[in-house]
Write a structure and sequence with these properties.
Number of strands: 10
Distance between the termini: 9 Å
Helix content: 25-40%
Number of helices: 9
Shape: globular
Oligomer: single chain
Strand order of the largest sheet: 1-2-3-6-7-8
Largest sheet: 6 strands, parallel
Strand content: 15-25%
């Protein structure tokens, strides 16, 4: 069973990886979680350099340890910090999400097919390299797709592109999905004048809408990756069960919080697991605590390890 620690967000390619490995040894662990960056892998559009990732694998392999890679693609905590410069410099192609006032927010939109296409291509190159370089050694045990996906400071994307999707029919995959307490005590009259999403999911319609398109985005990457190299893939999520539980304010809107898990399961069947990033004042376990293989290890409020089932 993997037992480990997570390196700092900007560790890969620096001396911080050796510090993390020393910590891992002192901790008695066997697995290091470390990020890999889209912008470092594709500095020029269409040209891929995997040397940083090879160096990371070699460094960890030489210590007799395992790796779980964190793919920092279009989202790092909902923000596009690690996308290539050609993406940042062309918002007309790679669309930034908009808030309800029409102003841009600090998130790329999962509705944008151009962003998805380029992120998926880069992720495919990563998985292809892992298969070629590591399939025999199996230093890399799993890959996390993106990091804490979703929107910060808005409950959904209000751009023209997203608004067209919001007025469209709800996907048939969600036909039998119900969100508890979506309508409060009673359902209102006159649903015919509402967006199909509003009519189906009431006060959680914006969050469900965001969750569907965010999960479809992640699921597309998962399908691409699995088709190349079939190792465990998962995503992580900000905790939703804290504060007043409002999407876009207390946690990223569209994230795979417990209320949205059925949406994610329908939209991203290729993903094997979700893991909580463990940063909050309170925490509700999504692990089976009766499982003797389950363990939770904490550093302050950050959960360093999920239960065995999270990566099986």
């Amino acid at each position: 069973m993997p037992l480990g620690v997570q390196a700092h967000n900007s560790s890969t390619g620096s001396g911080l990886i050796q510090r993390a490995l020393r910590t891992l040894k002192l901790f008695g662990g066997n697995t290091l979680e470390a990020p890999v960056y889209w912008n470092q892998m594709e500095k020029e559009e269409g040209s891929f350099d995997l040397s940083l990732i090879k160096g990371l694998i070699d460094e960890v392999r030489s210590e007799g340890k395992h790796l779980i890679l964190l793919w920092f693609g279009m989202s790092k905590n909902g923000h596009p910090n690690y996308v290539p410069e050609y993406v940042k410099l062309h918002p007309g192609i790679y669309h930034i999400a908009k808030g309800p006032d029409g102003a841009p927010v600090a998130s790329l939109s999962p509705h944008c097919k151009a962003t998805l296409e380029k992120d998926c291509r880069a992720f495919g190159e990563l998985m292809r390299f892992l298969k070629e370089y590591d399939e025999a050694e199996k230093t890399v045990l799993a890959v996390q797709i993106e990091n804490e996906m979703g929107y910060a400071n808005t409950d959904r994307d209000y751009s023209e592109e997203a608004e067209q999707d919001y007025q469209a029919l709800v996907p048939t995959e969600l036909k039998n999905v119900e969100i508890p307490d979506a309508w409060g005590e009673t359902a209102p009259f006159g649903r015919n004048g509402m967006s199909p999403w509003k009519a189906a999911f009431g006060r959680y319609s914006h969050e469900v809408f965001s969750a569907w398109y965010t999960a479809v985005y992640v699921g597309t990457l998962a399908k691409e990756g699995k088709g190349i190299y079939d190792i465990p893939l998962y995503t992580n999520v900000m905790i939703g069960e804290s504060g007043f539980e409002e999407a876009g304010l207390c946690y990223n809107a569209g994230a795979a919080v417990s209320r949205m898990l059925d949406i994610w399961k329908a939209a991203a069947p290729e993903g094997q697991s979700t893991g909580d990033s463990g940063i909050a004042d309170s925490w509700r376990s999504q692990c089976d605590e009766s499982d003797p293989g389950s363990r939770k290890v904490w550093r302050g409020r950050r959960c360093l390890l999920w239960c065995r089932k999270c990566i099986e």
